[in-house]
Write a structure and sequence with these properties.
Blueprint: E1 5-7, E2 10-11, E3 14-15, E4 19-21, E5 29-36, E6 39-47, E7 51-59, E8 70-76, E9 83-84, E10 92-97, E11 100-105
Antiparallel strand pairs: 1-4, 2-3, 5-6, 6-7, 7-8, 9-10, 10-11
Length: 110
């Protein structure tokens, strides 16, 4: 208990209950968050010893409820940490891999 990744919303002096996410056995780490009005996206990287996976969960109600985590992309070999593109008008996620940088528009991912 108390180990792993957690999401927590903070508004003024009010904090939500910490929400655990990610697979600790797959070395879940390096989360990044994009929030816009009611929509919140949390993306992180997992590694099972062979394949890196970008995982995502999302909320359409400012974190009151969450989707089940989904895999956005996979890669073998070295990868960078996922980062949201700052200043973009939409939630764009950049992920560097050996083949180059992949940019994912999260509006186009179910």
């Amino acid at each position: 208990e108390g180990m792993g990744l957690f999401y927590r919303d903070a508004e003024a002096a009010q904090f939500s209950v910490p929400l655990p996410f990610g697979n600790r056995d797959a070395q879940a780490g390096h989360p990044t968050v994009h929030a816009d009005a009611q929509q919140v996206n949390v993306v992180w990287r997992e590694f099972d010893g062979r394949v890196y996976r970008l995982r995502r969960m999302q909320s359409a109600d400012r974190g009151a409820t969450w989707s089940a985590p989904v895999t956005l992309a996979e890669a073998e070999g070295a990868t960078d940490l996922p980062l949201f593109v700052q200043g973009a008008r939409t939630p764009l996620l950049a992920w560097g891999k050996a083949e180059g940088v992949r940019v994912i528009d999260l509006r186009e991912v179910p």
